[in-house]
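Exercise 3.2. Students should predict the tertiary structure of the chain below and write it as structure tokens, then compare their answer with the key that follows.

Predict this chain's 3D structure.
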Amino acid sequence: MINVTIFQNGKLEYIGFELTGHAGYADAGMDIVCSAVSALAITVVNSIEKLCEDGFSFEENQENGEMKLISELAETSHDMQIVLNVFVIGISDIAEAYSDYICLTFKEV
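Answer key:
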């Protein structure tokens, strides 16, 4: 199962996310759930890096299916909020369609 944690600040604005695990929907290389989550997450990370001026930390371990992005500040720019909202919408839709393979939680930090 893929565990997705969405990090929020005290204003409930999105400030990052963490992914752990593998979906187990199909064999490696054929798992459409892992592929969808990975493609969405990588696109979001690249978009924040290229389109936003916010500082953030990023960690990834592909073998363990781990990825974590979090803002260096408690509040993020409008642009980063838009990109992170796109991630939340996309991951929520995937989690709804494949609820046996994705667990989505929100955590205030």
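Discussion points: Strands lie at 2-8, 14-20, 56-61, 66-71, 102-108. Residues 35 and 74 are 30 Å apart (CA to CA).
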